[in-house]
Write a structure and sequence with these properties.
CATH class: Alpha Beta
Strand order of the largest sheet: 1-2-3-4-5-6-7-8
Number of helices: 12
Number of domains: 1
Strand content: 15-25%
Bound molecules: 1,3-dihydroxyacetonephosphate
CATH topology: TIM Barrel
Number of strands: 8
Shape: globular
Order of helices and strands: EHEHEHEHHEHHHEHHEHEH
Structural class: alpha/beta
CATH superfamily: Aldolase class I
Radius of gyration: 17 Å
Helix content: 40-55%
CATH architecture: Alpha-Beta Barrel
Largest sheet: 8 strands, parallel, barrel
Distance between the termini: 12 Å
């Protein structure tokens, strides 16, 4: 059965010392909490600069992710960081296609497919983000938007690679705004995502695909979200910067599944 996950996207927050402190605090709290790590997982995604050092202090129960990888494997791309580099410093996951990357850095489906391939080639598990902006939601286009984001990137993979991907549905209007999708709104899209995966790769693959929700998810609203049948956990921004809240979200996920 699919894994249920709480992943923390730290974005461009913390310096090395405060990041290490946060990682240690989260690790300690996670180590004190008994849960089935075959069924549930936790991942942190610090800035590139912290990944290696955090890998040395992180609980063995917590996975380590980058927030991006370059669209090239190596070469004269000043300032870029490749999937291979990320893998070599101890990360096992990479967030791809976050809406902030799509909107501020112009990452389109074509670029994201290249990044996805490089991520998989380097044995990093992609956490692939999709989601509609407010105007699209207001025009009831959210289904078409997530379908094309999946069709044009994830469905270009063969089934063996597709099965390695974690999907994160993050409605852009809910990110960092304090405005969460209601459990019903989120469940509706998650069920739709699972349906199109089933149509493409079969019910068994769909049942085994982890689909996380992201967008202002925090302990006060997580029970409603995590109790939905197609929501397999969260990709957490702001609340991942507080060790108590972040680990509390894992506890709520375990309690609701
Ligand atoms: P917030 O939880 O701060 O809304 O961020 C969500 C997010 O973008 C995670 O990738």
């Amino acid at each position: 059965m699919r894994k249920k996950i709480i992943a923390g996207n730290w974005k461009m927050n913390t310096d090395l010392n405060s990041g290490l402190e946060l990682a240690k605090n989260v690790s300690q709290k996670v180590d004190e909490f008994a849960f089935n790590s075959d069924e549930f997982g936790m991942i942190v995604s610090p800035p590139f600069t912290h990944i290696h050092a955090i890998g040395n202090v992180l609980s063995s129960k917590i996975g380590l992710s980058s927030q991006n990888v370059a669209e090239w494997s190596n070469g004269a791309y000043t300032g870029e960081i490749s999937a291979q580099m990320v893998k070599s410093i101890g990360a096992n996951y990479a967030i791809l296609g976050h809406s902030e990357r799509r909107s501020y850095f112009g990452e389109d489906n074509q670029v994201l497919f290249t990044k996805l391939k490089l991520t998989l080639e380097n044995n990093l598990t992609p956490i692939f983000c999709i989601g509609e902006v407010l105007e699209e939601r207001e025009e009831n286009k959210q289904f078409d938007v997530v379908k094309s984001q999946i069709d044009e990137v994830l469905f270009k993979l063969d089934v063996v690679d597709f099965k390695k991907v974690i999907i994160a549905y993050e409605p852009v209007w809910a990110i960092g705004t304090g405005k969460t999708a209601s459990p019903e709104q989120a469940q509706e899209i998650h069920a739709y995502i699972r349906k199109i995966v089933a149509d493409k790769f079969g019910a068994n693959v769909a049942d085994n695909t982890t689909v996380l929700y992201g967008g202002s998810c925090k302990p006060s609203n997580a029970d409603g979200l995590f109790s939905q049948p197609d929501i397999d956990g969260g990709l957490i921004g702001g609340a991942a910067l507080n060790a108590d809240d972040f680990v509390q979200l894992l506890k709520q996920l375990v309690a609701n599944k």
